[in-house]
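ingest -> fold -> write
write: protein_1
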Amino acid sequence: MNSVTKSLNNGSGIRKQRNGITGSSLKIIAIISMLIDHSAAVIIDRIFIMKGLDKIDQSDLQLLGDFIGENFGLILSYGLMRLIGRLAFPIFCFLLIEGFIYTSNRLKYAIRLAIFALISEFPFDLAFYGSFNNNHQNVFFTLLIGLLVMQGFYLIKEKVINKKWLPFMATAGAMAAGFAITYFFMNIISFIYTIIRGEEAHNWLKVYLIISIIVGLIMLVVYIIMIKKNSLEVSSVRFADLLVLVAGMALAQVLRTDYSAFGVLTIAIMYGYRKSHIKSMLAGCITLTIMTFVEAVTFFNLLFIRAYNGKRGLSLKYIFYLFYPAHLLLLYAICYFVNLL
């Protein structure tokens, strides 16, 4: 068995024993939240289309106002259901991290996520798009990439920390961070560029590469400063972690997984604060809210996490795995039989 497999199979941790909400209770809360959210996204969305919302010119305020007036109750229900649905993803991220820490076999955990990601993809496409669609992948892929990123952090800390080539990996991490930061701030950069030059850039790839290299060099300077303040070993581990994180975020962005790069970033940040459940969830909520302000609803999860007792609770190991594709197929079937497709 190689070192990677051994490390994947290495799970450890001691759970606190006290009264409160168990892991299975958190999972049920997330599942119910997800079902409410997807019911709105799949069924009510199609009702809006059936009522002709997609044919209304969004600049025609009169028609848009009439549609809102006629369907106010349905629109309100849709909005509330989607808000409730925001609670699910941070809880699944939290449970993923708990599973990563306490599982006795991380390799099997990763394989299980991969299998159900593949199984769930067609039901996911049917429910949301009515047919196969490769432009949006289900959340299992995001969770799987998040798990691999956490494993990458573990390997760097436990297996790579004494390697002579760690500083080279850290240097690559600094440059990779430059590309990632530039990518996520391209809209702002584009706006500033247009103001300064008085015109839009004709070759964005060239502009992107130049700015990415500059930001990467700045990150490299930060790395050097950290070495002087801390140590080569500690600083190199942190910037090598950046390389793993950026790789995971890039993969999620390319695959267009649910929550994409920000989903992977959320998992990584929550993992960084894993020693405190409250801080972990708080960090995740802040990250998601930066992505989209509507995700501010996720802060309600702090109430659940505060009551979390660290116990597993009921044996619901495969409930989420099976429920996810099953509920998507059910929602699709409902749309099919009531002629919403």
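write: protein_2
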Amino acid sequence: MSDFSISYEFFPPNTPIGREKLRAVRTELATTAPEFFSVTYGAGGATQEKTFDVVAEIAATGSSVAPHLSCVGSTREAIGALLDRYRALGVRRIVALRGDAPSGFGAGAVGEFRYASDLVSFIREHSGRHFTIEVAAYPEFHPQARSPADDLAAFAAKVRAGADRAITQYFYNADAYFRFRDDAVAAGIEVPIIPGIMPINNYAQLARFSDNCGAEIPRWIRWRLAAMADDAAAIRAFGLEVVTDLCRRLVAGGAPGLHFYTLNQAEPTLSIVRALT
């Protein structure tokens, strides 16, 4: 594992049982010496305080942690205050996103930041170089982008605004990542682009997530998973094989790290990480 980094994403639980489970998951994943843990931030900042509480708990263990911040529904004053709170905890990394408005939000709920590049610029204005800033990238391009060229331009704007690194949306086609990386380099974008990895553990859940975010599940994978129906063990075994092979190809092709979307579960991700060592 010395030639590439790993990191893990959590979401803030809604219940005491969920929080206790996440502590156990984090403890298990910490045995792999990740570069950092990240914690998501709900649509329109819906989980802001829950995110802060999880971040504070992780920071107290001495692990590096990166809270998500999003534009939707945010003001400069509120984001500035939150950055100060995170700085006081010793946090040195932020994931800056445009974010999606929760259902029922109107156009006026966008807030004072229209694009993620605006948020990145403000973080630099407010906190200088204190935070390493991670932003999102889309190898299969953002579903709301008018074209791949427009999506690449949006990515470039975030880097010009001060982003240090990028974490991609998950994907299962390694060529999409390599093409995006090469296009970024050709456009003069030289920040590390970390592939986002989604373990396959539940087909119905994966299909729902992918339909919502625009991530493509290759047809042959969809067919194989659909044929397994409710055979959970077969789905897990097939998913482990597919995603581990994807990770091996990405690392062999020069990906500087892997960022796992854990869904607050340890075993699916740990199985992949162990298979890579």
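write: annotation protein_2
The chain is about 50% helix and 15% strand.
Residues 232-252 form the longest helix (21 residues).
pipeline exit 0
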